[in-house]
């Protein structure tokens, strides 16, 4: 099986005592299978597809140096699971729906599958089939033209009122940016700028002094807590936009935007780890000691920390990410379930015994891939 041989080839002995070894292959395979079994909501499927892309098909992800992806995929590097899930979503989409799938009232969440849909279109075997491309165009149109916005242009995360959630930053801007990078030219550059502007506007609305972001602002039902997963969504979403701009035809048009995204990601990373507990965990409300330990946000923020370090060469927070990795390793049980997660639907209670977090499962895979890629970079650099 390709996944196994690939993982064996990269899980080499640590080139440096700075870094420990991540999960073993059997565990990763179980975590992945469990993820695919329980991911049902749009944002969970989108996050799952991104995690599979980064874990199994790195060269087709925005964390590689290859762009655009090849139009014909080889036998071995064919993103078969990602493309088939994305294609099924498009085939199941009602003809009168612009969003790819039902978003439970969220604007951004259906767009989270968009990068996988764009990849499926780009690499489709039947070049006469424009249905996937049309679905992507419809989803983009929905975000840019139909969804409600704030007066200054931030796209609402809710359909029925203008409301901004940190979650949005992972769901929509990476799709808008990837769409732009694939199109290229002025049209593509414009979309890269739109993706950046959404990150900028969301930060303007949600960031508090100290650098952490509130979860939800504006409208009815705000959540001004510094939700761990919300901060992870924001940092990880900005990271994907940054990496997409870097790969695009026109990174030099976006020098200041890239510098800003980098510092905004580092701002969250640095603020979050300042509240890390001795065993490596973060709390669900990062800066609230009456909250509880949450492995989901710990895993997602650790993955961002490894990746931004790989990009910038700034290893200040690698020890914190390593401590986080070890608490996550000890939080995945023998059956491949991540324990000690927040319930991703209440945001403020632990998952009930026997129920697990789909996004938490995906964050373990994102963490594994990010840690592996940093090791690989250090190993290759030193070899
Ligand atoms: C995709 O790759 C897998 C191995 O990873 C292979 O078994 C399968 O036949 C390939 N499919 C296509 C359509 O190339
Ligand atoms: C779909 O792929 C084709 C290349 O086969 C490309 O020309 C088109 O722009 C793509 N559509 C989108 C929305 O990326
Ligand atoms: C980058 O961030 C600085 C400080 O927040 C801001 O003044 C500047 O306008 C931003 N640059 C762009 C291109 O948005
Ligand atoms: C880590 O420490 C916190 C207390 O700071 C505790 O609540 C949590 O259960 C610990 N996690 C593990 C996996 O031991």
From TrEMBL:
One of the GO biological process terms: carbohydrate metabolic process
Short name of one Pfam family: Glyco_hydro_88
UniProt GO molecular function: hydrolase activity
Keyword Hydrolase attributed: yes
Keyword annotations: Hydrolase
InterPro entries associated with the record: 6-hairpin_glycosidase_sf, 6hp_glycosidase-like_sf, Glyco_hydro_88
Signal peptide: none
Superkingdom of the organism of origin: Eukaryota
Cell inner membrane keyword on record: no
Protein name as it appears in the record: Unsaturated rhamnogalacturonyl hydrolase YesR
Organism: Grifola frondosa
